[in-house]
Design a protein that fits this description.
Elements: H1 11-19, E1 28-34, H2 39-52, E2 58-65, H3 75-80, E3 88-92, H4 99-108, E4 114-118, E5 122-124, H5 129-138, E6 142-151, E7 158-159, E8 171-172, E9 181-182, E10 190-194, H6 195-200, H7 214-224, E11 228-240, H8 253-268, H9 273-280, H10 293-301, H11 307-314
Helix pairs in contact: 7-8, 8-9
Keywords: Disulfide bond
Protein name: Glycosyltransferase 2-like domain-containing protein
GO cellular component, one term: Golgi apparatus
Length: 336
């Protein structure tokens, strides 16, 4: 395990973790989906979680094999995980279902109070789990997200970002300047959610296929339906960002992603969905997004807020004017 993650752990965080009574914290089930994951990164992630502990708070690690074809992930993996004495479980999917459904199948086989979704190519810091569980214990409508750094793909060195804020805005509150940071959306590589809260918001939309827009859907649900997304800087992990996908999502992977995002837009984005449709040059009229009546009924039953509220209160820096006559760009091109 890399020692570089140690550098990210603020002394105040060390003191904070020491004050926690781990015997009082809820238990966690780690859900780890994978498809043809490299043996070394998979086993590295499992050992990292178990070494960081606390062992008694980890109810189980559920590895969800999304129909891998690598030989070492068949019988050799089944034999190897027996050394963990039942703490690590292996769930096999009979056919390729994709990341979203693999996560849901994993969640169906958990028994802990809190579900922690974790990619199978991560490294966690000692003391990463307790702050996540503590925050959810305080408010189980919070989705707790660790501060995430990067593992270099070539050298496996940890690249320290400090405050993780790639591709989404981070707003810092003053209540606990080093502990609590709100975020409009989240990275999917790791997050913790109480099982009760996950069930309350309908988990992931079961109509989402393979991969894409599940992070946005869950983020909108949580914020608009009475919850919060919080980055917990006293929880640190590092994630291996690949240069490209090491496997195929099928011939129509791009269309699948668009279809997923359209489902999310139709259910949650209200009038703002038109910004997305204008951007991609498509609409539900020419893409079959499936039946979304159950998702709309869920939103109504939870009495969720409007997307306008989300933009104004959660993501105020987002430029999204509704009353726009036209959109485009102005350019001046000179060819020498």
């Amino acid at each position: 395990m890399s020692s570089d993650l140690e550098k990210t752990f603020d002394t105040r965080c060390k003191q904070f973790v020491k004050t926690l009574r781990t015997s009082d914290l809820p238990t966690a089930s780690i859900v780890m989906p994978m498809h043809n994951e490299m043996w070394s990164t998979l086993i590295r992630t499992v050992f990292s979680v178990l070494d960081a502990g606390p062992y008694h708070l980890i109810q189980e690690i559920v590895i969800v094999d999304d129909a891998s074809t690598n030989a070492d992930l068949s019988v050799p993996l089944e034999q190897y995980i027996t050394i963990f004495g039942g703490k690590v479980k292996l769930l096999r999917l009979p056919e390729r279902l994709g990341l979203i459904q693999a996560r849901l199948h994993g969640c169906d086989h958990t028994s802990g109070d809190v579900i922690v979704v974790l990619d199978a190519h991560c490294e966690v810091h000692k003391g990463w789990l307790e702050p996540l569980l503590h925050r959810i214990q305080q408010d189980d409508r919070v989705v707790a997200i660790p501060d995430t750094n990067e593992i270099n793909f070539d050298t496996y060195e940890v690249i320290l970002y400090g405050l993780w804020c790639i591709n989404f805005q981070v707003m810092i509150t003053v209540r606990f300047a080093w502990v609590l940071k709100l975020t409009p959306t989240h990275l999917g590589c790791c997050f913790a959610v109480s099982k009760r809260n996950f069930e309350r918001v309908g988990r992931y939309d079961p109509g989402l296929k393979i991969w894409g827009c599940e992070n946005q859907e869950l983020s909108f649900k949580i914020w608009m339906c009475g919850g919060r997304l919080e980055i917990i800087p006293c929880s640190h992990i590092a994630h291996l960002f690949r240069k490209s996908f090491p496997y195929s999502w099928g011939e129509n992977s791009g269309l699948t992603h668009i279809r997923n995002c359209m489902r999310v837009a139709e259910v949650w984005m209200d009038d703002y969905k038109q910004f997305y449709y204008d951007r991609i040059g498509r609409s539900p009229k020419n893409v079959n997004i499936g039946n979304i009546s159950a998702q709309k009924a869920l939103r109504k039953s939870l009495q969720c807020r409007s997307f306008h509220w989300y933009v104004q209160e959660v993501y105020p820096s987002l430029f999204a004017p509704l009353n726009t006559t036209a959109m485009g760009y102005v350019g001046f091109f000179v060819i020498c």
